[in-house]
Specification:
Belongs to the Orn/Lys/Arg decarboxylase class-II family. LysA subfamily. The protein has 430 residues and is an alpha/beta fold. The protein contains twelve helices and 21 strands. The strands form three sheets. Strands 4, 14, 15, 16, 17, 18, 19, 20 and 21 form a nine-stranded mixed sheet that branches. Helix 8 packs parallel to helix 9. The protein starts with 6 loop residues before the first strand and ends in a 10-residue tail after the last helix.
């Protein structure tokens, strides 16, 4: 199996950022997320450099939904990242991490009155998803005596090669305003007393392993930019979203690089803005590509059971990594204490959750796992802990950061008291 540069095998043990995964599991216990902060910083620099080589006025926004750990967001903030935020919680985290409000975009198709009020209060730009939302935001801004800077989210109606649950630019998607209706939306925004349209936004999906869809989306966006510029919109930015995928199948996925992405997208963008006679900033929103490969989920083997399959029963399941159950997603798995040993059988890694679908990895060729072993689930940094739950009343695990020669907790493990902390007992049930 090909391993990225921050993962290595030393003395038969898997290492992340130079740290022995088995030793980390012994120190902190399992299950355990381990994240290499240096890998995240390096990924960010590479992505930004690929785009700014073509156009210096490029701002990389981290798609905060991918990983909401404050230490991760602070690492990216220190590199100059902004963020695409999808809730008031993500907005507050980005601000706490030190991100500047002008580098944040408040996205989402169903914002509450409280969300809109917070956006106005903090002065972040809002990606408006409907005409009704525009009118609500105008009223909230008027009540606060302020003006809200906005972009509209465009639905480009593009088919993309990814799982349908994460294809967000389809004609049938819940996100955005159809491209053919967008000029009328901007005309209304221009007439609204407490709205200033300053950008345009789209996002076509996630885990896309081809670059052509991104080039096509950029083409749609610059065409729309020309139309709205003609009616008087002064565009400060064009946000073409994120979605570049990573190679979960390390040996076979095509995995386009940021450089290949830039080669496909930037000529379309640059030609389009030249023809419009405008020079807006380019905003992009990678999430998975920045953090996906930065983390491993270390799980402990409880037992091995031979039935119609040989099940390796471990101490984490879709309560901590839901992607395999939700999307039929693939993650490489490695027996961390015998990482270079030859496979001697086919095994299915099964979690402890009371669901038949709680399988982290099916039918994998591995060296025989035994009770007490540690298995590393790779590429768990995006939509891993961020989508975890307390199902079956299982407290969520710790997260550990590594950087250089250091390692430390960046989120402690929950206890049962954390599960019950928000529960109340009505007096009439006592």
């Amino acid at each position: 199996m090909k391993l990225p540069s921050h993962l290595s095998i030393e003395n038969s043990r898997l290492h992340i950022g130079g740290h022995d995964c088995t030793a980390l599991a012994e120190t902190y216990g399992t299950p355990l997320y381990v994240t290499d902060l240096d890998r995240i910083a390096g990924n960010f620099r590479r992505f930004r450099a690929a785009l700014t080589a073509y156009y210096p006025e490029t701002q990389v926004l981290f798609a905060a939904k991918a990983n909401g750990n404050l230490t991760v967001i602070r690492t990216l903030a220190a590199e100059g990242a902004g963020a695409d935020v999808f809730s008031s919680g993500e907005l507050e985290l980005a601000l706490r991490a030190g991100m500047k409000p002008e580098r944040l975009l408040f996205n989402g198709s169903s914002k509450s009155p409280a969300d809109l009020a917070l956006a106005v209060e903090t002065g972040v730009r809002v990606s408006v998803d409907s005409i009704e939302e525009l009118r609500q935001l105008n009223a909230v801004a008027a009540e606060a005596g302020r003006t809200a800077a906005i972009a509209f989210r465009v639905n480009p109606a593009l088919e993309v090669p990814t799982h349908p649950k994460i294809a967000t630019g389809l004609k049938t998607s819940k996100f955005g305003i159809p491209a053919e209706e967008i000029v009328a939306a901007y005309a209304e925004a221009l007439a609204a007393e407490h709205i200033e349209p300053v950008g345009i936004h789209c996002h076509i999906g996630s885990q896309i392993l081809e670059v052509d869809p991104f080039a096509r989306a950029a083409g749609v966006m610059v065409r729309v930019a020309r139309e709205i510029t003609d009616i008087g919109v002064n565009l400060e930015f064009i946000d073409i979203g994120g979605g570049l995928g990573i190679p979960y199948h390390h040996d076979t996925d095509p995995a386009p690089t940021p450089e290949e992405y830039a080669t496909a997208v930037m000529p379309v963008f640059l030609q389009g803005i030249r023809e419009c006679g405008i020079d807006p900033a380019l905003w992009v929103e990678p999430g998975r590509w920045l953090v996906g490969d930065s983390s491993v989920l270390l799980v402990g083997v409880n037992s091995v059971k031979r039935a119609h399959r040989t099940f390796v029963n471990v101490d984490a399941g879709f309560n901590l990594l839901v992607r395999p159950a939700m999307y039929d997603s693939y993650h490489e798995v490695v027996v961390a204490d015998r990482a270079d040993a030859a496979a001697d059988g086919t095994y299915t890694v099964a979690g402890p959750i009371c669901e038949t679908g709680d399988l982290l990895a099916q039918d994998r060729e591995l060296p025989a796992p035994h009770a007490g072993d540690t298995i590393a689930v790779l590429d768990a940094g995006a939509y891993g802990f961020a989508m975890s739950s307390q199902y079956n009343s299982r407290p969520r695990c710790a997260e550990v950061a590594v950087s250089g020669g250091k390692h430390a907790i960046m989120r402690r493990a929950e206890r049962l008291d954390d599960v019950t902390a928000t529960m109340e007992t009505p007096d009439w049930t006592a």
